[in-house]
Write a structure and sequence with these properties.
The complex is a heterodimer of chains A (about 200) and B (about 200).
Chain A lengths: L1 H25 L2 H4 L3 E4 L5 E4 L4 E7 L3 E3 L7 E3 L4 E10 L3 E8 L7 E2 L4 E2 L4 E7 L7 E2 L15 E9 L2 E14 L9 E13 L1
Antiparallel strand pairs in A: 1-2, 3-6, 5-13, 6-13, 7-12, 7-14, 8-9, 10-11, 10-13
Chain B lengths: L1 H26 L6 E2 L3 E9 L3 E7 L13 E3 L4 E8 L6 E7 L7 E3 L2 E3 L4 E4 L9 E2 L14 E8 L6 E13 L16 E6 L1
Antiparallel strand pairs in B: 3-5, 4-12, 5-12, 6-11, 6-13, 7-8, 9-10, 9-12
The chains are: A mainly beta (about 200), B mainly beta (about 200).
């Protein structure tokens, strides 16, 4: 019985040791130094993992279409540059970047009339998984960022952990093809962008 | 034997616990999210009213010398360019010109030229012959007794969007009028689109 246990436990211990060594070698220090482990009385482990940090910045300023044309595609003239940086991302976590309008029924409004988010389209021309024009009708990232039906996911990227940065270029347009004529006026709204590691 | 098994079991738990402790943050086995602060981008888009009128030439009209008792034509016409982009509910588009005062279209000090002595014509519009500025306004646009409808046309399905240019020729007709007091007479002619 004990011989059987000794034989069967040897590969297990070797596997564990090998895995530990591999992790210690592979994992960057920034991912390891912040964890606190407490060995419980029954051998249970309580792990308090450091929450990764993530930042997102946008350059390109306010976007303006000077003369909306009914029944046509109206491009915003300048693209937005999106820069993201993260630190302490867990191994095999996911980076999700989403842009969204809070109210899908009224992405832009002139006070009485609205342009729904479904008429706003975006595409990420560099470093993204959404290079085709896509309407703001998607759901947001996990964690509650971006309303259902008013979002456009720019990317959903599997991370191998650690620290990194990324940039992308977002183009926007208003597609009024097949839509009834808009009432005259100045339509205004706010596009929100967030990055989420999950 | 039991003691041996117990020791090995605790060893396994210890090693497994350490591994789990390390894997927990690395493999994100909990459901924590890291969310960036929101970046906001203001978006605006302007939809024009769909009606524009521009005086593309002849914005200033002048008569170098006024002849009493005769029709005095201004040398060059007022070129009016009209563009429209209208809702299907609009049934008619008009352009009207008017002076603010019927009694004093042009004035020089205390002397005045009434709008009835000022005439206009648009050969591509409504007053193809010179017609006095004595009409009423259109839908509240224009001065009663001092206006002139330059052109008007219905908006149908095939002309909701369009542009056109028209020449407004002006004339100061003093035929049968008493001689004017010498001086420089000046005034302002207003031109406006009306969609109804």
């Amino acid at each position: 019985m004990s011989e059987r246990i000794r034989r069967s436990s040897a590969p297990f211990a070797a596997t564990i040791v090998a895995l530990l060594v591999a992790l210690l070698v592979a994992a960057p220090p920034s991912m390891l130094h912040a964890q606190v482990s407490v060995l419980g009385a029954q051998g249970a482990v309580v792990a308090a993992a450091a929450v990764p940090s993530i930042t997102l910045n946008v350059t390109g300023g306010a976007q303006h279409v000077s003369s909306l044309q009914d029944g046509e595609i109206n491009d915003f003239p300048l693209p937005l540059t999106i820069s993201t940086g993260w630190d302490g991302a867990p191994l095999l976590s996911t980076l999700c970047i989403v842009s969204y309008f809070q109210n899908p029924a009224s992405a832009l409004s002139n006070g009485t009339a609205s342009i729904p988010s479904s008429r706003i389209q975006g595409r990420l021309t560099t470093n993204g998984s959404a290079s085709a024009w896509t309407a703001y009708t998607q759901s947001g990232c996990a964690g509650g960022s971006g309303p259902n039906g008013g979002s456009f996911k720019l990317t959903s990227l599997l991370l191998l952990g650690g620290t990194d940065t990324g940039t992308g270029t977002l183009e926007l347009r208003i597609d009024l093809r097949g839509q009834p004529d808009l009432a005259p006026g100045l339509y205004a709204g706010t596009l929100n962008l967030r990055a989420v590691i999950q | 034997m039991h003691a041996c098994v117990g020791t090995r079991s605790r060893l396994r738990q210890l090693v497994a616990g350490v591994v789990l402790a390390m894997l927990a943050p690395l493999l994100s086995i909990d459901a924590q999210y890291a969310v960036s602060t929101a970046a906001v981008v203001p978006l605006t888009a302007f939809k024009s009213s769909g009606l524009t009128l521009a005086v593309t030439s002849g914005a200033t009209q002048s008569l170098a010398s006024i002849a009493d008792g005769a029709a005095n034509s201004f040398a060059t016409p007022v070129r009016i360019t009209t563009s429209w982009e209208l809702h299907p509910a609009v049934g008619e588009l008009s352009v009207v010109a008017w002076f603010s005062s019927a009694a004093a279209a042009l004035s020089s000090g205390t002397a005045s030229i009434p709008s009835a002595w000022m005439k206009g014509r648009v050969v591509t519009g409504s007053p193809v012959a010179f017609t006095a500025f004595t009409q009423n306004g259109v839908q509240g646009t224009g001065t009663a007794g001092a206006s002139l409808l330059l052109f008007s046309f219905p908006i149908l399905g095939n002309n909701r969007n369009g542009t056109r240019s028209d020449d407004l020729e002006l004339q100061l007709d003093l035929t049968g009028q008493p001689a004017l007091t010498p001086g420089t007479y000046s005034g302002v002619l207003n031109i406006q689109i009306v969609a109804q």
